[in-house]
Design brief:
With 251 residues, this protein is of the alpha/beta class. The protein contains ten helices and eight strands. Helix 2 packs across helix 10. It binds pyridoxine-5'-phosphate (PXP). Pyridoxine-5'-phosphate (PXP) binds next to strand 8 and helix 9.
Length: 251
């Protein structure tokens, strides 16, 4: 499974003091050294962490693909069409939220979303939609032209944290497994992301056809203690080495 490293929180630390450091671009290079398969950043409308100049610098500096997360607004889609990242992940965005709270509402304004997907794809950008693990939403994503889905794992992560028994965990992972299978059967590339950490990420090994996990906060947090290349290498190992794959005996 590819590991996409989200470096937004490096910019959060930088902006907290209005300094020029730590640099998210430097962080992306360190993440690459640790084995990052792509770099993810989210340019929010309020520019609370990543800024426009960061995105351009990232695009010019990193060797691995850039996965550019944006809201499906006119401003952001035009910006993405201008810089042409490898991939765009369209996410819902609310001003007051601490972080992205859920997948896109695909019952609302889908026609506009469809035309934005077309615009991005016409520029040669791969388009992924951040969705809940709901077969109906995944079917709409495929219908309106997305090439990939990123299944929102946030609610699953919260629920996992509250569980106390392994049978419950095995029941809980079923929803994500089914969602991944539905996405694959519809011809979509399947990604996951949000809330994944050094405890729960091993479960992603059980998702059929899942090609990519996008992870930020937990790895940037761990990097404070072990450095970013090591944090990235450890996470790649957790999501790929079969030794860590939960089994009915040890999960
Ligand atoms: N994927 C998407 C679509 C996101 O919005 C985020 C958070 O910016 C992430 C993955 C990474 O989430 P986390 O920081 O919880 O690992």
């Amino acid at each position: 499974m590819r590991l996409g490293v989200n470096i937004d929180h490096v910019a959060t630390v930088r902006n907290a003091r209005g300094e020029s450091y730590p640099s998210p671009v430097q962080a992306a290079v360190m993440a690459e050294l640790g084995g990052a398969d792509n770099i993810t950043c989210h340019l929010r409308e309020d520019r609370r962490h990543i800024r426009d100049a960061d995105v351009r610098m990232l695009k010019d500096t990193i060797q691995v693909p850039l996965n550019f997360e944006i809201a499906a607004t006119e401003e952001m889609v035009a910006y993405a069409c201008d810089i042409v990242p490898y991939a765009v992940t369209l996410v819902p965005e609310k001003r007051q939220e601490l972080t992205t709270e859920g997948g896109l509402d695909l019952n609302d304004g889908v026609r506009k979303l469809e035309s934005n997907i077309k615009r991005l794809r016409d520029r040669g950008i791969m388009v992924s939609l951040f969705v809940e693990g709901d077969p109906k939403a995944i079917a709409i994503a495929a219908k309106i032209g997305a090439q990939a889905i990123e299944i929102h794992t946030g609610h699953w992560c919260t629920a996992m944290q509250k569980l106390r028994t392994t049978p419950e965990a095995w029941r809980l992972i079923k929803g994500l497994q089914e969602a991944a299978q539905v996405g694959h059967d519809l011809g979509l590339q399947v990604h996951v992301g949000h809330g994944l950490n050094f405890v729960n990420a091993v479960w992603m090994q059980l998702l059929p056809h899942c090609e990519e996990a996008n992870i930020g906060h937990a790895m940037i947090a761990r990097a404070l203690f072990v450095g970013l290349p090591q944090a990235v290498a450890e996470m790649k190992e957790l999501i790929n080495n079969p030794v860590h794959r939960p089994t009915q005996g040890n999960g």
